[in-house]
Amino acid sequence: MNTWGRHIRLSIFGESHGKAIGVIIDGLPAGESIDEERIAVEMSRRAPGGTEFSTARNESDLAEILSGTLNGKTTGAPLCAMIRNNDARSGDYGKAIRPGHADWTALLKYSGHADMRGGGHFSGRLTAPLVFAGALAKQIIGGRGVKVFGRVLSVGNLKDTETPATADEWEKISMARFPASEGVRDAMQALILEAKGEGDSVGGIVEAAALGVPGGCGEPFFGALESVAAAMMFSIPGVKGLEFGGGFALTHMRGSEANDELYVEDGIIRSRTNNNGGILGGISNGAPIILRVAIKPTASIAKVQRTVDPEHMTNVELEIKGRHDPCIAPRATPVVEAGLALSILECMS
Amino acid sequence: MNTWGRHIRLSIFGESHGKAIGVIIDGLPAGESIDEERIAVEMSRRAPGGTEFSTARNESDLAEILSGTLNGKTTGAPLCAMIRNNDARSGDYGKAIRPGHADWTALLKYSGHADMRGGGHFSGRLTAPLVFAGALAKQIIGGRGVKVFGRVLSVGNLKDTETPATADEWEKISMARFPASEGVRDAMQALILEAKGEGDSVGGIVEAAALGVPGGCGEPFFGALESVAAAMMFSIPGVKGLEFGGGFALTHMRGSEANDELYVEDGIIRSRTNNNGGILGGISNGAPIILRVAIKPTASIAKVQRTVDPEHMTNVELEIKGRHDPCIAPRATPVVEAGLALSILECMS
Amino acid sequence: MNTWGRHIRLSIFGESHGKAIGVIIDGLPAGESIDEERIAVEMSRRAPGGTEFSTARNESDLAEILSGTLNGKTTGAPLCAMIRNNDARSGDYGKAIRPGHADWTALLKYSGHADMRGGGHFSGRLTAPLVFAGALAKQIIGGRGVKVFGRVLSVGNLKDTETPATADEWEKISMARFPASEGVRDAMQALILEAKGEGDSVGGIVEAAALGVPGGCGEPFFGALESVAAAMMFSIPGVKGLEFGGGFALTHMRGSEANDELYVEDGIIRSRTNNNGGILGGISNGAPIILRVAIKPTASIAKVQRTVDPEHMTNVELEIKGRHDPCIAPRATPVVEAGLALSILECMS
Amino acid sequence: MNTWGRHIRLSIFGESHGKAIGVIIDGLPAGESIDEERIAVEMSRRAPGGTEFSTARNESDLAEILSGTLNGKTTGAPLCAMIRNNDARSGDYGKAIRPGHADWTALLKYSGHADMRGGGHFSGRLTAPLVFAGALAKQIIGGRGVKVFGRVLSVGNLKDTETPATADEWEKISMARFPASEGVRDAMQALILEAKGEGDSVGGIVEAAALGVPGGCGEPFFGALESVAAAMMFSIPGVKGLEFGGGFALTHMRGSEANDELYVEDGIIRSRTNNNGGILGGISNGAPIILRVAIKPTASIAKVQRTVDPEHMTNVELEIKGRHDPCIAPRATPVVEAGLALSILECMS
Question: Could you report the predicted ipTM of this complex, rounded to two decimals?
Fold first, then answer.
């Protein structure tokens, strides 16, 4: 269903071309200061911006807080934020099933009753409320010493081989207009424009890190920090893979290499490496939480595709017009960060 | 926490060297025939068997059903199954933190109160109840035309390049003593023995497939079939990555390649490819559900490792004795299948 | 937390004098026709109306549906409805703790951060979204043959001794401006006015009935239809008691009297009496579901009360000004009906 | 379903004449000392004891803890306790529907697949695991200064008019073999024996109190302490009513009487009366939590009853043989206490 979390409970609503989208966040502690300026910054990181790398749709993406705050602080009551939809051009969308989209499965599940204009409830636009909620989470866990960052690790075959070494480096990359290391940023953008020029799209990997997470967060089994974060990450449209720490690369290692050896320093137990991405047995160990998310190429492309008109059950060809990001990874970066920040807040609550 | 599922609710309990482990499964439909023989087969696939590829620990792994069935059929009441622990040698385990294990994080979370003998509640032994529950799920969804299989896709750098083409091929591979394609089986086993010979371990990838899943299962957002399955998969000890369909490889594709084009055949909509692994927008589309799980090398190895004695907070060296699988992937295969079968039952309920 | 339901999930938000209040309802089937006119009727039954029996506050109580419907039908996506607050006079509320209100406990729980203007998140105004959700539920279960009604059974010591015999009788009473039997209506209103004249308030009992509920709804134990409804009913401000069927009066009966004897009629099993209120073992038996809710006297009264100023921790006297219903029972009637309708929809889903 | 609680999660299993019944309790803090002696005392308070007031069935009711403890302390992992069924005489139960029992509704819900021997999963025997869990809860909250007591307030028309004034008085009454005030105990027992002598049964009211609950426990709306406790109480077989504080009697009061006036004493806010039963707005205020539960007369009676044979769909007469308590209230007292203790632990977690 549309709810997530046991201590911090999110409820998402809205359709892309409906009246509004939004989120209720329950379980926030009372008395937390909310900096709306910083929320707006996070929202703008995800918002489509009119650059060549993102759709030209001019969403205002201004979240109105309807409840749960007073004088800039949380009240302890559920916080609802709403974002009006004000630039929906329904005419842009036709009746053929768009390959790679939820059009097909929505039809199977809702028998034609779903509002699929602009992707409806399945639209990437629904990640805006997630970013809003994540911005709150970042502020709250920020006050407890946790920082969350993200970056585009790869676009197509082009992969960043460097790793940010400090929180400052992470922050610089994370907050850039195109959130990737300077060394690869231009090349990534060129690759995206190339795909766009061909009426096509390209996939990518987003990496996120949480620094300063205290040990002991999460639970064994179904309450594992990885399980909590995974349920969140796989709800983000376009995500088809997720790994923590060494992830799939760990399968190529020997145990003697993969095991993070421990040592005592200043009375604290630390690990020499972090192949487990800060999580052992579902519980944080104090090392940075590292995860990577595989994002498929944007499903909406200009190129002609073969598909089906479900009303007449005929094979047809489809050219998708309208405005679409040729690569979702850059705008997905703050969404993945938001999901990680919420997961950590959940496990710290 | 230890519960999973909204329609089918699992509650897991037990510690490796405690009295018993087990599971309650609630929400099962009444009147489903339970074939205990087939449950035993599934249990034996996971059980340590005394071959060179698995631990020599002689667990009986006989599940006793305590409730929820009558005359071989489900009653609709919660079904509890219990497995006694009867071969625990606590002496095998010392006091130094075993690198790569939950020893460290259990200490952080439970302040020394956890029963960590044999890995305690974090032990791979806790997957036995999952396999039990999965065996039930397989029988129930089997009656609705769904078949679930699994295989070892890779061990270390050795990857199977072939893909089973039919349900029969899948079944043959899946039910083999070492569940991998004949073409790579021997080489995989040799690789595992090589690691074992060095007092080391090796990782691998398990792939699972569900054939015959009807379209329309799952929900958008947090109830996505991927989210439901992910929460389950990341609760399996040793899992550090998960992907659906093309997964991470999709990030290397163009949209025109990754999108599964559609066509009408015999009045049914089908896709020419299955890069989305049978799931779009969190909902099944009728194509096979395909997922892959990255399993890290067994953390328990014989080789000397540097670690910490937490009682004295000193750096120490550790040689882990006792019986451990040098590669978890083969025995994890039925566990991943179980998790997938349960996820599908949940989404079909 | 602010969520209720497993199949039909409600999430409530809002504070009395904040920007808006509202509800998300998830899990509604797709394709259900929504009659906004009938929703408005239900909302107006709860809304304060300017009569002598209810507060003069002019809330518009117009719910705006933000998502989840298209062309008057549910889409299957979460439905969010919002009601703006537009007539809040914060000046009406002072700083002394109002006896019988949540002012005291909100202070204990939220350390002064709660927005308690007008009762904040604890306000009876929060029942408006419940009535909205209940109106939807009534329409959906109405399509399956279930009708839900309510009435004021007692005000103070004045109790209605008659019982509606048919759905038509129930409907007539339920939909009256003052939802009580004609025989007691005037006397009840007089009693309420008498209390009001003394600057005081009076309690009452609301009875609700659901006719046509099919057998087999609900579950044993914590999923009992009674448990599901109880969690809902006790969330309604002012409710301090709940009983099903004979309820507390059953404790005065012998088993031979209380047991509902059965007989076969037209191939259907029926009971001669309905002391169990249509529920046995937590599951509906096909007889009318009957429940009764005890509503305490309105806490806000004009009479001088002794209380505490928490800021100065001094004993003070308080006269509550402003507009308050001298008896909540009439306006609570549609709220209790809504809660029952939602509970039945939950258990039929 | 069979799970309850968000922080403390109970999962109940078992059927009266199956192999075993039991409970998993998850979310218990690690390191809590468990006194098995005191658990046994609680279990024996509920257990049928061979006196004239309870059934002669000789259940051992010895709970075996299978997991979650080590050296007498909780480990933080899920605690599973199992009670074997060893005295089931299935022959005692026939095929006619027993009026007032779940036989009828189980048939409607499970289409004849339910194991209804001895009441199956609906049996009062399933309250034994609740008492076990409650005994743990009592010990844990006891360590935080909370004491929970219960008593039989009324049997039939015979009602205790006195109220225990201190914790010592409560304890004395609560722990008596027949948990009622000395002044009414003999009369209550006589009344029960009278009903028994007539082959009949009688109902009663159980009152429970929690002393020392800190303010601020519980949440507004669906997380109200009342809602949490209500979902628990209505899962207890035979419960048909529940009230907090003044409960239904509050409906006869004026607001000026019902409102609990406040005053400051020793720097603490207190109320002069406790009509709200220690809960305002769903949150505890520090005053004793008081609740009352209406328990219907035992459904199993020796007297001839008219009912239906569902196999042949004929009207039949039924004489229930076997051993049944003529009044459930005394044995239900520790069950209600357990439910209250668990509810408070849940809200304090």
Answer: 0.96
